[in-house]
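re: ur question from earlier - yeah i can do the single chain one, its not a big deal. heres the input i used so u can compare w yours
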Amino acid sequence: ELAQIAISIAATTRTLLSTEPKVAMLSFSTKGSASHINVDKITTATQIVRRRMPNLIIDGELQGDAARVKTVADQKLTDSPVAGNANVLFPDLDAGNIAYKLVQSLAKAQAYGHIIQGLRKPMNDMSRGVSVEDLVDVAAITTVQSGGCWTKQIIIGSSKNLVDAKIQLEGNLPYEKYESGGYLRGHIPGR
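and the output i got, formated as tokens:
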């Protein structure tokens, strides 16, 4: 399961960021510095990904600092294609959720998602407390995943406690009004 999620995340990275993913399979151990069943799980998942996707740049098990900080990576590893340069940090679901919530609240970073992986067609999830801006951001991500293209214009306005989100997508379709009061216009190739 971890292996398939890592493969899906790598594909999503290519689609959304137009960059080659360098996947670090994260653990509390770097290359055998600790022995534990959870370390074995990460090592096994990394091996499965390498067999399924031999051209994917991936390494694990790596601690977070070894994955992102070049000086730390140079001290701990000699031959990792990812260490110190990872742009995809992949833990399990628990650690991923904890990490993104901490970064969002402590660093005031923007978090996008939930971006659902592994389905044949794009579908993403929104929390109950989602803002209109979050909805617009995830709609943009879903559109890109579907093969559509965003223009640079996103318009958000409010009126009498109702918020209308007008999302302009490339295409020739008229705006469609939704029950939420939002509008969506777009063209997704092949649809």
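The beta strands are 22-26, 57-62, 88-90, 150-159, 162-169, 176-177, 183-185. not sure if urs matches, ping me
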